[in-house]
Each structure stands twice: as C-alpha cells, then as structure tokens.
Design goal:
Blueprint: E1 13-22, E2 27-32, E3 42-43, E4 48-55, E5 60-64, H1 70-75, E6 80-83, H2 98-101, E7 105-108, E8 113-122, E9 127-132, E10 143-147, E11 155-156, E12 161-163
Parallel strand pairs: 7-12
Antiparallel strand pairs: 1-2, 1-6, 2-5, 3-4, 4-5, 7-8, 8-9, 9-10, 11-12
Length: 170
C-alpha cells in the first residue's frame, strides 16, 4: 500500500446530507459521513453556520443559524453539506478519505482494467469497496464488492486502486 491518497484538487468534501426537518423550530435531520461532524462550524462556503447538534435516529439533528422554521428545514432536504478539503485532518499512512477513492479506476494486480470505484460501505467490520464493471452496449456493468484491506487491495494512489485477482468477481 502506498502513502495516504493525496487530495483531489481543491474540491469541497461532502460531510453530510440533509434528509428532512425535525420539529417546528428549524432543526434539520442529517445523514452524516464524518465521525467528527460537530467540529466543523461553517458549511457550503459559509452559507450555513452550525449552532448545535444532537443525536438522531438516522444520524444527527442539527440547528443552523440561517434556518429559522420547519419550512426552511424541509427545503434543505437533499442538500449536501460541504467543507473545504483544507480543513480536514491530515491522514496517517494507510488512511484515506472516501471522497479520494470514489471514481478511481480499479485494476487487477496483473494490470487488467476491471472497473470504477462507485461506493464505499461499512457494515461494521471495515470498509468495503464497491466496483462497477464497464458498461457494455449501453447496459450498466455488474457491481461487486471487495474488502478494503491489504489482502484484497494491495495498493492504491491518486490514479488507481489495485485489486488482488482472488477478490475479483467475474
């Protein structure tokens, strides 16, 4: 495995998405993609300022200074909350941000192109990379999953993710 994946350009990173309103006072329910969401106070280039967070059933319930009522909170549904990449913590060796792996071409350890990283899931035992095979005649390619560990993914960098042949579904 190479060093941590360097940042993709200067694109903002999505930390959460609004999934609906909570209550009548402008609280927003979020699906959160970060372990330490509350450490960030400003989102979407300063358009949203975090005032408070509380645990919710599917993530967090938050209050933003700019959202005053349920109607405004409900209008946020589907809004991605982003921060500049520069405010994210530095990565240690072997660590990565999901945003840096998504979209990478995946190749077999013998060099064969096998598809593109389209999703990263964690079902409790570590990250699992979802790879989509190339489309054929306009039909979306089959997807398969690979554990994100040194046996299955011996190497990755900013240009590709290498998958051990034993973990590739045909």
């Amino acid at each position: 495995m190479t060093d941590a994946v360097p940042p993709k350009a200067e694109a903002p990173v999505v930390l959460a998405v609004a999934i609906g309103a909570h209550g009548i006072a402008g609280q927003v329910r979020l699906k959160v993609f970060a372990e330490d969401f509350a450490r960030y106070k400003s989102f979407n280039d300063g358009a949203l300022t975090l005032k408070s967070t509380a645990p919710g059933n599917n993530g967090l319930i938050v209050r933003f200074a700019e959202i005053a009522d349920r109607t405004a909170a409900e209008a946020m549904r589907g809004t991605e909350l982003t921060v500049p990449r520069a405010v994210l913590p530095r990565l240690a060796d072997g660590e990565y941000y999901h945003a840096d792996l998504l979209g990478l071409p995946a190749i077999a350890d013998d060099g064969e192109a096998i598809g593109t990283v389209v999703a990263i899931d964690n079902f409790g035992a570590g990250d699992v990379i979802e790879i989509e095979r190339p489309s054929v005649d306009g039909v979306t390619g089959k997807r398969f999953m690979v554990p994100m560990n040194a046996d299955a993914v011996p190497d990755w960098d900013t240009s590709r993710l290498v998958v051990a042949r034993d973990f590739i579904e045909v």
